Amino acid sequence: MKIYCKKCHTQLSKDCQIGTILDYDDKAQETAPAVPNGMIIILDEDKFILSYLSNCETPIKKLISTKGAIAINPNDIEDGVLISCGKDNGCCGSDGMDGFNRKCKCGNILGTEWSDCWTQAEIRFEPLKVEIWD
Ligand SMILES: [Zn+2]
Ligand 1 centre from 123 Cα, in Å? Predict the structure, then answer.
């Protein structure tokens, strides 16, 4: 199975197998992959992060991906198909703390990359932005 842009049908991923939620490591950090190589995992719930404002000690729960989002190992993404967009902050990569940060060459906002030294390594596509075909 491969992931394609829903808008322009550009192939975004290499050929992968559909894994289960049990294959997803939501505790991964420091560049460890959240998804094994060669696998696509469909997340079964909305995912949130805690965001802290500088003048506020109470964290704000922020939606970072919606139910049905498609997670994949960055090594399984085709070269050069993802373009940085939105707020794309990080220390040496993308920390994924500011919402969607990757788009297709056609302009379709696809989802989020995590690639910073302290985050997991993961690409996560929004469910309505991509399609999975054989
Ligand atoms: Zn596209």
Answer: 16
Q: In the structure encoding, which two tokens stand for residue 20, read together?
A: 């289960």
CB proximity list for 27: less than 8 A, separation 6 or greater: none
Strands, DSSP E only, in 9-68?
17-18, 39-42, 47-51, 60-65
Residues with Cβ < 8 Å from 122, sequence gap 6 or more? Answer: 28, 33, 34, 35, 71, 72, 73, 74, 113, 114
User: How remote is the CA of residue 27 from the centroid of ligand 1, in Å?
Assistant: 31
Cα(128)–Cα(79) distance, integer angstroms: 22
Residue type, 122: E
Instruction: State the virtual CA torsion across 93, 74, 35, 9 in degrees, nearest 10.
Output: 130
Digit-coded pLDDT (tens) for 24-78? 999 999 999 999 999 999 999 999 988 777 666 788 888 999 999 999 999 999 9
Cβ atoms of 88 and 98 closer than 8 Å = yes
* Residue ranges with CB less than 5 Å from ion ligand 1: 5, 7-8, 10, 104, 106, 108
Report yes or no on whether pTM surpasses 0.90. Answer: yes
